[in-house]
Amino acid sequence: MNKIAVIYESKYGSTQKYAQWIAEEVNGDLFHCSKVNVEKLMQYNVIVYGGGLYASGIAGVSVITKNFESIKDKKIIVFTVGLASTDRKEIFAPIVEKNFSETMRNSIKFFHLRGGINYKELNLIHKLMMAMLKTVITRKAPDEMTDDDKQLLATYGTKVDLTNKNTIKLLVDYVKS
Ligand SMILES: Cc1cc2nc3c(=O)[nH]c(=O)nc-3n(C[C@H](O)[C@H](O)[C@H](O)COP(=O)(O)O)c2cc1C
Q1: Of ligand 1's atoms, which has the minimum distance to the CA of residue 114?
Q2: Which residues contact 13 (CB under 8 A, 6 or more apart)?
Q3: Which of 10, 54, 97, 149 is the best mutation target for the ligand 1 pocket, counting ligand atoms within 8 Å of the beta carbon and taking the most?
Q4: 4-58 pLDDT, tens per residue?
Q5: How far is C-alpha 126 from the geometric centre of its chain's CA atoms?
Q6: What's the CATH number for 4-115+162-176?
Q7: One matching Pfam family, short form (predicted)?
Q8: Could you tell me if the ipTM is greater than 0.85?
Q9: Which residues sit with their C-beta closer than 6 Å to ligand 1?
Q10: Side-chain-side CA neighbours of residue 19 (13 Å)
C-alpha cells in the first residue's frame, strides 16, 4: 500500500487548507515543511508538496529541491497556491522553470490552485510588495491589463477567498492513480 505524505508551507492559511483537504482525501500524513527532513521523506512512496506563491517563488519548496537526489524515484506532486488564474499556462510555466531544474520538472507532476488574500493581515513587507504591484498595474494601458490585474485593482485592500475544495479533484485522482 502506498504511504502518502502531504507537506506544506502556508503564510496565511490557504495552502494549509488545501493540504488538509488533500491529506483527508488521499488518506495521507500531513506535515508542515519545518517538521520534515530527508529521513522522514524516505518513509513515503508518494510525496505531495504544496506552497503559496510569493513573487513567483514557491514557499518552502526547498524541502523538495534540496532533497531531490534522495527522493527522485518516488512519485512527487507539487501544487502551488496563488491568486493568478490557473488556466493561464504562460504564468505557470516560468514559475515551474524558475523553481525546478529540468531533471526535476521531468519527474514531478504540477498542479496550480487558487488561494486568497486578506490585506489587513499581511505583514509589512507583503503589504509593501502588494502596493508596488498595484502601482505597476495602475501604470499599464487599459488594453494591457489582464483579468487578474483588473481583479487585483478591484479587490485591493479587501479580503478575497478563491479557495475551492472541488479544484483538488485532478490532483487527488493523480495521487491515487
Ligand atoms: C507579497 C505577495 C506576493 C504574491 N505573489 C504572488 C504571485 O507571484 N503569484 C500568485 O499567483 N499569487 C501571489 N500572491 C498571492 C498568494 O500566493 C496568495 O495569497 C496565496 O493564497 C498565499 O497562500 P498562503 O496563505 O498559504 O501562503 C502573493 C501574495 C503576496 C502577499
Answers
A1: 21
A2: none
A3: 54
A4: 999 999 999 999 999 999 999 999 999 999 999 999 999 999 999 999 999 999 9
A5: 17
A6: 3.40.50.360
A7: Flavodoxin_5
A8: yes
A9: 10-15, 52-56, 59, 81-84, 115-117, 122, 126, 129-130
A10: 27
